[in-house]
Amino acid sequence: MEDMFPKHVAEAMLRGEEVPEDRRECATVLFADIVGFTTLSSVLESHQVSDMLHRLFTRIDALAELYGVYKLETIGDCYIAVSNLVERQDRDHAVRVAQFALGVLAACADTPACLDRPELGTVQMRCGFDSGPVVGAMVGTTHKKYTIFGNTVNTASRMESTCDAGRVQCTEAAAAVIRTQSVEHPERSVRLTARGKVPIKGKGEMATFLVDADDGSSASSLATALPAAAVLC
Questions:
Q1: How far apart, in whole angstroms, are the C-alpha atoms of residue 51 and residue 61?
Q2: Which run of H or of E encompasses 132?
Q3: Strand extents, DSSP E, 164-203
Q4: How far is it between the farthest Cα atoms of the chain?
Q5: H or E segment to which residue 47 belongs
Q6: CA distance 214 to 47
Q7: Predicted model pTM
Q8: For residue range 57-90, what is the model confidence (pLDDT) as tens digits?
Q9: Distance separating alpha carbons of residues 81 and 156, to the nearest angstrom
Q10: 8-22: per-residue pLDDT in tens?
């Protein structure tokens, strides 16, 4: 059950207790999406699409465990994760997600879209995240689901959808948290580049930042050190 729900939620359910909401004033939510997934799906057989997602998400799952980021769910080709919600990570949740996102991009570069079609190259993703208030709660009575709510979730999704292919984008709020947390965790620092005002659906123009590995970042090396995608399928 702990593979399906956060540990404290699973334990409460096994005891037959009602699961209370998880509330955080500042958590970090990430969305990652495959670039050109519709096109890939049109040229690959269904089992090849399934195999691609399995190989890729297996590597991303390993990164989530490595960085202590909670995998909420996957929806189609979209991977959703959160930090500082199911466990306390107040002092480094944003830098964790930033490093995780860079690791995701590095893992993509080493994951073939199709093992039988080398001409298709490797998978490419875009990542977006935001930091702010988040609520996590159980919904439904059959096929129960732990999910998250709040403007932070919606904004993180917009950061992903407006990001360039192969890049990581975050909000001004997330960038501010990263700067603060990087003082205490310089080994996890990332480079933030102001992108300017970006039109965001339903929110008007927002100041956003592109996230890149700092010179001392280990995200790429950690990602490429994971088991090869071909071995994991």
A1: 15
A2: strand 125-139
A3: 168-171, 190-200
A4: 53
A5: helix 46-67
A6: 38
A7: 0.90
A8: 999 999 999 999 999 999 999 999 999 999 999 9
A9: 10
A10: 888 888 888 888 899
